[in-house]
Amino acid sequence: MLNTERRNPLTTHIDKMSTAEMLAVMQAEYQKATEAVAPELPAIGAAIDAISERMKKGGRLFYTGCGTSGRLGVVDASECPPTYGIDHGIVVGIMAGGDGAIRRAVEGAEDSREAGRRELSVFEINANDSLVGISVAGGAQYVLGSLELAKEKGALTIALSCNAGCPIEEIADIAIHPDTGAEVITGSTRMKAGSAHKMILNMISTAVMVKQGHVYENMMINLRPSNVKLRDRMIRILVEITALPYADAEALLEANEFSLKKALAAFETQ
């Protein structure tokens, strides 16, 4: 039996627990999810370095998955453009069942290997690209299909699961598999497994973006002023770096197409 499908002996009577008892056991189990990521850091690092090298050559990063796994990939991909100012086509989340499955579960979608191939093929994946196939159990047919196509096209393939030795690892160049163990509610992998995967996806996209030059020190240097909040954040970042008064930093950005990189370059030549 898969580790993620086993019953958790600490929660066999959760239906009889008080609210406080349920919360305490959930919190303790979530801490285990965090701890499970640590042994995977070498594999995560290898994935980051390999993705980054391909992206510097014009490559893209794709996530494919089903259910919670697919939603986590879509969330991570969708947050990269506003955070790092990149185009929407650089990090792409593809979910079994399409965008509608983000809000309404399409449970049977994960069983089609052909759909995984077909929906990735639309993007004309190539050897500069990277694909992270996300499947907690590690055997989703949709993810297997997308990994197979990516492999055929020469792209970097990464398997993200919670069960070592699973089928998606047989295809992938790099395997990441935090052992989060049995869930609080048996088989409900949106809990510990999903939490571990969310952390790992955050690590991958964040480190790759840093390596692409979209971060200065620990600040988002490639932001775009797409709303009031981000405009203000850009001004405050420039204030932090240059020690200019807020109004002067705003004026400098205005004079440089509201680009932090251009504004910094102009400041340094003053």
What does this structure look like?
The chain has 270 residues and is of the alpha/beta class. Helix content is 49%, strand content 10%. It contains ten helices and seven strands. β3, α5 (141-152) and β4 (156-160) form a beta-alpha-beta unit. α1 (19-37) packs across α7 (192-211), α2 packs across α7 and α3 runs parallel beside α7. The termini are far apart. The mean pLDDT is 95.
Task: Give a short synopsis of this structure.
The chain is an alpha/beta fold. Helix content is 49%, strand content 10%. It has helices at residues 19-37, 41-55, 67-84, 113-121, 141-152, 167-171, 192-211, 228-242, 246-254, 260-269, and strands at residues 61-65, 91-95, 130-134, 156-160, 174-176, 215-216, 219-220.
Secondary-structure map:
Layout: H1 19-37, H2 41-55, E1 61-65, H3 67-84, E2 91-95, H4 113-121, E3 130-134, H5 141-152, E4 156-160, H6 167-171, E5 174-176, H7 192-211, E6 215-216, E7 219-220, H8 228-242, H9 246-254, H10 260-269
Parallel strand pairs: 1-2, 1-3, 3-4, 4-5
Antiparallel strand pairs: 6-7
Helix pairs in contact: 1-7, 2-7, 3-7, 4-5, 8-9, 8-10
